[in-house]
Amino acid sequence: MMQVLSIKSGATTKQCPPLGRLVILTGPSGVGKGTLMKSLLARHPELYYSVSVTTRSPRAGEVDGKHYYFMSRNKFEQLVAQGEFLEWAEFAGNYYGTPRQAVMQQIRSDKTVVLEIELEGARQIRSSFPSALSIFILPPSMEELEKRIRGRAQDADDAISRRLHHAQQEVDAASEFDVQIINDDFEAALNSIEVALF
Questions:
Q1: Partner of 21 at 20 to 30 A CA spacing, among 46, 79, 130, 153?
Q2: Which domains does the chain carry?
Q3: What are the residues facing 113 on neighbouring strands?
Q4: Given a cut of 80, is residue 18 above it in pLDDT?
C-alpha cells in the first residue's frame, strides 16, 4: 500500500528501527538523495549504508570505499557475470551496482541496510526483495530540479537535457514506491524519511 508523506516539520522519534531489513532511497539525479542520506546517517549511526560500486571517475572530494567503490568496466562486468551484485544498472554511461554479499551479511546480523540507488536498480531490488521499504524522493518541480542540476556546474547543456529527460521518466515512476517525499524543505524531508523508517 502506498503511503504519501506530506512535508511538515516536527520532532523526530528516538525509537530503534525494526531489525534485519532493507530500505531503498531513490529519486532522480539532482533531487538531493545523497545529501539527505548523509544527514540521515549522521543522525542514525545504527543504520548500515551500503556503499555502491561504480565505473565512473571520482568527483572532487570523493573517497574510494566511502562514497563509492571505483572500478573499471572490465572488472565490473566480471562481477556481474559472477552474480556478485544485488542489483546493477547503467546510468549516464557508467555502471552502478550494490555488492550482494555485504548487504546480505548485514541483514542476517539484524541490521537495517539503507541503499541510495537509481530507479532501475531500485526496481530490481523491489522485485527480488518485495519486503524492502522503498522511498522515492521528488523535486518540488522540474524547474527546481533543472536549477539544482545546473547549479552543480558538472555537465554540458546537452548532458543536462538528457538528465532532465531521464529525470522526468523517473518522476513518473514515483507511484511505484511505498513512500513519496518532496524535497522542498530539507529538514522537513529528512524528518519525513525518519517517520517512514522509525
A1: 79
A2: 3-50+110-197 (3.40.50.300)
A3: 22, 48
A4: no
